[in-house]
Every structure is written in C-alpha cells, then in structure tokens.
Amino acid sequence: MNLEAFLHNLHYDIDKTKPPDLVVDWEDGPLAYKLYRGLQVVPLSSEVPLTLDGGEALVKPDLRQIGHFLWYIFGLTQFSQSVPTSNSMVQNMGLLQMYRRFVPSGGALYPNELYVYLKLEDLPEGVYHYDVAHHRLVLLRKGNFDAYVARALGNRCDLSACFGTVFVSTLFWKNFFKYNNFSYRLQGLDAGTLIGQLLDVAKRFGFASGVYFQFLDRAVNDLLGISEREESVYAVIPLSTEPAFQWFAGRNEGEQCSATDLCRELPKVKHDYYVRSRKVKEFPMLIEMNEASLLEWLRPIRQISEEMIVDSEDLAVALPQVKRLSYDLATISRNRFSPDGDFIMAKISQEQLAYLLQEATASFRYRNDLDGAHENPVSRVSLYVCLYNVEGIPDGAYRYDSAAHTLRWIRQGDHRLKLQQGMPSDNVNLSQVPLIFHVAGDKGHLTTALGYRGYRIQQMEAGMLVQRLLLAASAIGIGGHPLLGFDARLCDEIYKMTSQGITSLIQIPVGPYRHSPRLVGGLHV
Question: Buried b / exposed e across 116-138, counting CB within 10 Å, b at 16+?
C-alpha cells in the first residue's frame, strides 16, 4: 500500500487499516509505560501540590518542582476499577482495571513517553527518561548537550537560556498491539493531548515554552538512545524562566548540518528496557510512515496558514461576552471524566457554551516553529459543533468563529441520529448529548507544505485542541469523550466542508453526565 492510500484509509476507511481477522492478544499486551533496566535512577518527590491555580515567579526550578511538573503532565494519577458495558468494541473483558493519567488516551494505552534534558543545581546535567511507574528519572546520558540540541533544532533556540528540554516520543508497539496500523493516527492525537497538558502545566509553574515540530529526528533519537524502528520523537519543547527569551530565532544558514553528521558527534548508546510482551509483532507501515516523515536536513520553515472559510450569511449567533475562566488546573484535571454511556440530556445555556468555546480556543494559542514570531496566527485546526437543546439557539450544525466569538450557521436540524449511525460502536448514546464537537483541519493533512510529517503535526494540533476543550468542559462541570470511531465523510457532508478543503479529524461528544459505578482511588500523597 502506498503512503497516500494509507493516510486516506486512516481517515476514511478505518477497517482497511487492520486485518479483518485481527485478534488482540490481551494476555501478551505491553505495559503502558517503559521500564529501563540497569541504569542510575533519581527518585522524585511524591508530595505533589494539590492545587495549580496560577503561574509562579520566574525562577529556575529545583528537582522537587520538576518532579511535580512531570507528574501533573503524565504521571499515574488514578486507579480505577469498573465493569464495562458490553458493546462491539469491548467484549468479555470482565473487571476493567486501569491506571489513569490527566490526559486521555485511546484505550488508555498511552503510547507516548517523556524524556527530559535537564540543567538543575541539585541534579547532574544530562538526558533522563521519566519513569512513570515509579515517578523517578532514569539517567540515559550525562553531560551538557546545549550545542547538540540547538543544532538539532536548526539553531533556532538558545539552549543556554533554557533550564530544560522535553522530548515527546511515541513507542509504536504500545498501541499497535491493539489497533494495528490505525494506531498511527492515534499516536499523533495522543501526543497532542499530552503536549496540550504540558503547555498548560508549564504556565502554572511559570515556565515559558515553545514547541518544535521540525528537527533532525535521527540526531534527537540518537541523543536519547532510541531506535526509530521502535520509537521516535514527535516534538521537542524547550523550557525557560527567562522573561525576555527570544523564541524561534532565525538560524545561521552557514551552520547547517545534516542529521547524519550530527549523529557522528555522540557515541552510540543502547539501553535495555522492559515492555512485558513476549512477542512483539512487526509494524512495517508505521516504520515506513515514520521514515518518510524524518528530516535529514532542516528546510526553510515558513508559516502554515489556514485558507479563508466562506461563511453563510443566513444566520450568525453572537454568543454572550464572558471573561476567561479562572480555575485550579489540578482540580479540573482530577475531575475530568470521559463519559461512555453516562451522558444525560440537560439543557445547555448560551453562557455555558460561550465559556466552553472561548476558553478552549483562547487557551489553545501557543508558541511553535510553524508560526514563528507571529503572536496571533490563524489556527490550522478549528471547532465545529452540532447543537441540540441549547438555550436560545436553533438546533443545527455550526462553525465557531473565535475571532468574532460567534457561531456561524451551516445546516439546521438535529443531526444526532445521523451521527450515531456513523459510529461503528454503540459505546456512546448521542441522543443524550447536547454538544457534539468536531475538530477540523486541512483535508490534505498539511502534506503539500510539510510532506508526510504534516499528517502527524496535524494530528498533534488536533489533540492539543481536544485537551483544551476537555479541560474547559471540566471547568464548567460537564464531560467530553474523544472518539475516532466516526464517519468522517458523513461529518464533512453535514458541515459542507468538502468545498472548503477541510475535513473532520475527531469527534467529541460533550455534555452533562452521571458518574458510573466504579471504584476510584487517587495516586498521590
């Protein structure tokens, strides 16, 4: 299968991404976290703060703060036991036991891993892996790598002014074992929700951050000692406490180097790690897609903007003017819940909808190397929604115009039944849901501008917006459930997206819910 056909099937023909006779070997499934063996470890404080309600003073953090920072991003936060409702996706699994985190993940498999390059006064300088299971750091390489990482980023970041750099990777087998090739789509989205949480937590700790989607992959992977046939870094995020830090400075064209040249500067390392699976199957399509996305050289990087969307003049609903939500991130992260059959129908007020939409899109703005120095670029992903039972707004399909804080009418009527018929699973009853959101983006998945790397960048940005929407929903006391089991063609038709050159990337039912019967325990001291 060629790569374009593969991307098409990932989006429009999900059944073609996995064998029809696929049987998931649950007994031989991998752990949801990577365990390195035989390396030096640094324990992190488990006495995490129970509130995160504002940015702290811009001072260089210590190891204790870094431990809290990492736990709120990706640590094990909750143990849950429940009995799943039988449906076409979950059968005969008995008691369902899960270790949850503050970010959602397809099947709670968490295919991503976190690595950090740290320069702290109370920790040896070096590159570490965040051991989620034990809440500790594992030392992979000792030393100062400012110059190396800076060149891997195309000399677009002053690493000497950063106290740390986070690397978000994907370990392919962690969800390939269940989803087969469809896992490639999930991996980008999961990385995006993780990055979204990271950026929000960084603000609460007073850290400035910027996301680099384009870098010399093999050089970065070599620094961490990982093989891109098993795992690869998707995003690099430096952290600074310098208030006047200049992000994405223009690089010196005379100092360019290739990934191959840069890799020669470090001795190769290979670390032993444990995944539990006795048999790891091959995933050639994921490897081929990843290899097609790798950068040997950093080409000139330009801003990727969204095409102008032509709105209908028939109806525009101006939403109430509301202030930005003020909330404790720790509390709403703990309270965030993904309802399955737990949605209950209740009327949504215009004010609730206004808070939800404004907070999700306003908090989504972030620094990245595609936008460069632009403060308020046009977003490459946007929010559409099918409304039902919203106070004072006709049922129908709308696009949210964040600049005007207005809903742009597209198609009238109740679309819940049609959307339900487009779902292969009955795990969510959309007749009980007042708000069904769709994140939309370029139908070509940015491949014209960014090659095959554009696909995973688009999925990451979609995931980041999803995380913002889920946190905003939690802040106003309702829940959301991200779904990839939906009919993208059907949604595109409802929203008349085809002529606009965009497509639906993910579906998120949002609304009030009742708590399902389950045993839940918080994993913090």
Answer: bbbbbeeeeebbbbbbbeebbbb
